[in-house]
Amino acid sequence: MTAPAVEPYIRRNAGDLVTAEDWNTMQNEVKTDIAARIATAKDEVKREGVDKAKNADRFAEMSEKDLTDKLDTRYAPRSHNHEGQSVYKRFIKEFSDQPGYDAAILEHGFGSYPLVDVYELQDVVRNTDGPYMGCKVLFYYGHADADELGLREPIGRERIPIGIPFEQMLNELKVVRDDNDTIEDAISDMRNQFMADPNDEIKHCEAPWLTRCCGERRTIGELKEADQWPDLRLAIRPRKCGRGADLLVADGLIGPYCQVEILHANYDTVVARVAVAEIGGNYTWPMDLMFLLRA
Question: For the chain, is the Cβ count within 10 Å smaller at the N or the C terminus?
């Protein structure tokens, strides 16, 4: 292998006079050359070693997570459900003995067969006499109404309040409101959203607290200042269906049960058909059912 040609720092021919100026110039040239070669070597080490080491955990300029996510989109099973794997939808339907009203179509749009749970919405207030007969959704104030209307379920030595905090329900239904809105408007907006299509409208009631205590025109801000807002609740009593030929025994009484046939018509549609037990010669029409569908 032939060595590359090397040029002298200062070219002189045989017999030429070498001066002190030549000597000083050559020392400067040597120092400059060495400094340049050191800088070039450092840059090469950094470019080919250090900089590449920084990227050692990447492949084709992608991190491990980027690469995994890309592969998942190519090879992992994909669902048509754009809302996420854990999403669920709630349908509330009223069934009756009128022709065609013993079945309902539930359009869920999940793009797959969902899990389906079915619940009968019982009367919220167990004493069915008076204005609360047939009431399936009840707005009430915990401290004032729960004991009077029997809205605390006894479980052993404990009593569990029935219902959902009103503010939580507003958030779930995405009802927009502020502290200047009246409680009347908040209840009305919640009710409209809760029973919006595709849900059916079912009987709803309000406990006497609003008129007896404060009035419907009080604002949300005023209720918060009085520390009453956190104890407003929306009561429903969903009892799961599917007891077959059994009868429900509650509070020492024999009551009706619900049987529901679920047909997955396709990946986006469920058909629900009900049959109601005959107790003592009477049918329990109408029947309000809540369907929870989870993708």
Answer: N
**Residue 116 above 60 pLDDT?**
yes
Q: Phi-psi category of 169—alpha, beta or left, where left has phi over 0 and alpha has psi -120 to 50?
A: alpha
Task: Compute the distance between CA of residue 228 and CA of residue 209 in angstroms, rounded to an integer.
Answer: 11
pLDDT at 269: 96
Q: What is the mean pLDDT of the chain?
A: 78
Q: Give the position of tokens 């955990």.
A: 57
3-state secondary structure of 14: coil
Contact 94, 200 (CB under 8 A): yes
Is-contact 59 169, C-beta < 8 A?
no
Q: For residue 220, what are the CA distances in angstroms to 1, 180, 206, 224?
A: 92, 6, 17, 6
Q: What's the N-to-C CA distance of the chain in angstroms?
A: 73
Tokens of 263: 């047909």
pLDDT at 96: 84
CA-wise closest residue to 150 among 252, 253, 237? 237
Rounded-to-integer distance, Cα 158 and Cα 150, Å: 14
Under a CB-based contact definition with an 8 Å cutoff, are residues 107 and 268 in contact?
Answer: yes
- pTM to 2 decimal places: 0.64
What would be the CATH architecture of the domain defined by 81-123+238-295?
Sandwich (2.60)
Extract the tokens encoding 21. 């100026």
Please check whether residue 165 is in contact with residue 230, taking contact to mean a CB–CB distance below 8 angstroms. Answer: yes
- pLDDT digits 0-9 by tens, 256-274: 567 889 999 999 999 999 8
Cis peptide before 256 (omega within 30 of 0): no
